[in-house]
From TrEMBL:
One of its GO terms (cellular component) is fungal-type cell wall. The lineage of its organism: Eukaryota, Fungi, Dikarya, Basidiomycota, Agaricomycotina. It is found in: Secreted, Cell wall. Keywords: Cell wall, Disulfide bond, Secreted, Signal. Self-assembles to form functional amyloid fibrils called rodlets. Self-assembly into fibrillar rodlets occurs spontaneously at hydrophobic:hydrophilic interfaces and the rodlets further associate laterally to form amphipathic monolayers. GO terms for molecular function: structural constituent of cell wall. It comes from Mycena pura. The keyword Zinc does not apply. Residues 1-19 form the signal peptide. Belongs to the fungal hydrophobin family. It holds the Pfam family Hydrophobin. This is Hydrophobin.
Amino acid sequence: MFSKLPLIATAFLATLAVAIPNAPPPPPGTTNLCCSTVGTNANPVISTLAALLGVSLTDVLGNIGVGCTVLTVLGNTCSSTTVNCNSNQLGGGLINVGCVPITV
């Protein structure tokens, strides 16, 4: 029974290696996130949340992620929008700026 364990483990690791895409690593200082909302500061959901938190997004260019969780290499799945954001977080981490959509 236990003699098949190394074979099963090897098959699992080989399958896992094929399943992980060979995408280049993200730039330093960035994080892969799964965000419930991604848009610009013109998005009403984002602007309303920022106003409630007392955060000004008027000078922010590009995409903003809201309600984000960190994606790990192995495990997390994202049913919303997957983005790569720089390390700038506002509103206690609820708002992430400098986000670029990615395909996982």
